[in-house]
Structures are given as structure tokens and as C-alpha cells.
Amino acid sequence: MKRLRCVAGLLCLAWGSLQAAECPPLLQQQLPKLRSQETLDLCQFTGKALLVVNTASHCGFTSQFKGLEALYQEFRGEGLEVLGVPSDDFFQEANDQEETATVCYVNYGVTFSMSQPQSVRGSQATPLFRQLAEQSGTAPKWNFYKYVVDRQGQVVAAFNSKTAPDDPRLREALRRALDSQP
């Protein structure tokens, strides 16, 4: 019986190592979930196209949540994930996570993944946003910057805040990311 548990343990360890090896460097991290004690393991997005957006609850672009949710609903069956990362780097995020959650989940009906507020620019930026900026050549200059990541974990496009979720250029970049091979 001990031998069987030992073999099972080794198999689990090997499987975990294999999964970690397949997870692209950009996704080898975790963020705390909004309104939760749980974390988002970004490796769960391995093999999927990903749209990462830094958000804010009290910004002129906050209404983009509606369009982001529409994109998610339209393309999630094809393998698109959306990750919203609230940030107060531009002084427009609520001081209370409950208020942030209300804006996202209640006011705009967001069903895609949301993290707790994080820093997205400068030396204090979360590793995810440092890597997004490095790969794309641009860090967020305001709220609702958008990064399109292909199925291999590579940034294929970045868009500024003024780019609406229904912009044809953003949709084309999402199509390229969705059509990429995992």
C-alpha cells in the first residue's frame, strides 16, 4: 500500500512539473481574485487567447466593461479569456474592493476573471504588467489599456484606452490570437 501511494505521489509530482513546463513564462504567476480569498493561477489560461485589461471603477472609460463582456461572451467558446486587473495607478479605482466588485459584477455584469487591484506601471507594477510592457514595448498610460496575448503566451498587440472593445483593429488582433496554435 505504501508503494502504491509513493508511485501515485511521484506521478502527481511529474504531472505538475509537466504542466508547469507547458505554461508560458508570461502566465507563470498568480494574482489574488477580486472579492475572494482565492488566487487566479494564470497558467489556467495556457493554450487560450487572452485579453488583459487594466481597469478602474471611476474612469471615463469604465463603460468599456460592457463591450469587454460582449467580446468575452462572443469568443469564449473559441478559447478567449479576458482578465481584468483593477488599478489605482491613475487614481480612479475605488478604495474598497466591495465597491470595485459592485461596479464590475453588478453594474456591468462582468463574468470574466477579475483580480484584486494591482499596480500596472513603473517599478511597482505586478510582474504580469512588467512582462506585458516588455513584450509589447508599451506600459499602460491610462486605464483600460488592452493587451492581446496569443495561445503561446506572447503579446501580439496592445491598444490604448481610446480603443473601444468593438474596434475592428482589436477584433482582428483577437482573431489572430484565437487562430494561433497552442
UniProtKB/TrEMBL annotation:
Gene Ontology terms for molecular function: peroxidase activity
Annotated keywords: Oxidoreductase, Peroxidase, Signal
Keyword Nucleotide-binding attributed: no
PROSITE patterns reported for this sequence: GLUTATHIONE_PEROXID_1, GLUTATHIONE_PEROXID_3, THIOREDOXIN_2
Residues in the signal sequence: 1-20
UniProt entry tagged with the keyword Signal: yes
Family: Belongs to the glutathione peroxidase family.
Protein name as it appears in the record: Glutathione peroxidase
Organism per entry: Pseudomonas fluvialis
Lineage, top ranks: Bacteria, Pseudomonadati, Pseudomonadota, Gammaproteobacteria, Pseudomonadales
